[in-house]
Amino acid sequence: MQMSISKAVASNFLGKAPNWYKQAIVAFLVLNPILFIINPYVAGWALVLEFIFTLAMALKCYPLQPGGLLLIEALFIGMTTPEHMKHEIVVNIEVVLLLVFMVAGIYFMKGLLLLLFTKLLLKLENKIALSIAFAASSALLSAFLDALTVVAVIITVGLGFYSIYHKVASGKDFHSDHDHSHDDGVPHPNRQDLEDFRAFLRNLMMHAGIGTALGGVMTMVGEPQNLIIAEKAGWDFVEFFIRMSPITIPVFFAGLATTFVVEKFKLFTYGAQLPPVVRTILTDYDRHTQENLTTQDKARLAVQGLIIVW
User: Fold this and answer.
1) What pTM value is reported for the model?
2) What is the largest CA-CA distance in the chain?
3) CA angle 171-174-178, nearest 5°?
4) How far apart are CA 155 and CA 123, in angstroms?
5) Can you tell me the distance from the alpha carbon of 167 to that of 164, in angstroms, rounded to the nearest whole number?
6) Taking CA 90 as the corner, what is the angle to CA 78 and CA 142, rounded to the nearest 5 degrees?
7) Is the predicted pLDDT of residue 306 greater than 90, yes or no?
8) 75-85: per-residue pLDDT in tens?
9) All structural domains of the chain with their residue ranges
């Protein structure tokens, strides 16, 4: 049965983003003109927060698309003018290009990054070493790539792990369709392992998030605002790193030390361990994935590796 035109348009709107995300963007578009009439100052800050929100689905729906809708609406309701928009683009063209190419680049290299973080999780059985490795790897990546999109990749890794175990714990195989947002299909004997796995993933996501912050401040391309600082100060890539290093390098090691302390002494809900049954399932899935890699898949990963090195 063919879907109606209205349903087809709704399905195509914002690509493969989930429905709640699409509905949120539509709500923003309806709310902004009302806020602007009531209080333009509040409407301006709301627009900034909404654009940050669009990064939530950076790997499934580029932030440029919903962000562009918000910007077009801002022009129509008089929040800004085309002339002012052109001026801002000219002044900040380096930042604009950085965001465009970083998000596109991280999407292109997503497959290899997913593979690397998967190997990292499965090879390091010591939770403290794994946590430090996640923080350090995230810092290294975010020093040369946009930090927010690195976080998006790591969240995708964690969500992938979670959905795999949730699917198997619900009695399904790796390739079955499954809704991992509900636990109704998970038998009660598996519920504790599921909760422990959630706690474990929350720990890793926080360590990775902190790592991106530590690495993002080190270089002029780690964060968009760093480009502006480097331009105004007249620094190149190396000079930015050297001048910032008296602060950024000690802070980096302090961040790794903090990661060690909270994991070692299990502070603030850190220290959760990966249940053995979950590790077994994830290892089986990784082995299954590697055995089914095609020549095309291997070539794609090789090209992504060359791009990262370049």
Assistant:
1) 0.72
2) 65
3) 65
4) 19
5) 5
6) 105
7) no
8) 999 888 888 88
9) 5-91, 107-309
